[in-house]
Write the structure tokens for this entry.
Amino acid sequence: MTDEIYLADENFGLYLRKEHPKVLAGYHVWVRPVVKLMQRYQTVTMLVRKIAEPWTQQMAYRMGVISHGSFIGMLMMKVGFVFCGIIGVVVYFWWMFLVLLLGVKSVNIITKRNASGLRKVAK
């Protein structure tokens, strides 16, 4: 991954945190176990890398870093937004259940928004 694409990915994460926090929360629910598997098995890392390539290309295109995207990446992004959004909403309501009905005192990190701006890519 080039430095420009890496920064675009970082900025995309900031965009999600600000504009779609439940999608980002849903993503974090399923990606953490995948990362643990990647740390343990190189085969999983190679498989995830291969699967992530079209998504990365589409993300870089959406962030204005490259001139063309990926049709498969676009489909992955659309399906992923819905999938992660559903998980994020379920997690959000689960936290609300714990907080309101069971009296658990917790900071709701799902709806917390980051006001920091996007980083610029040095050219």
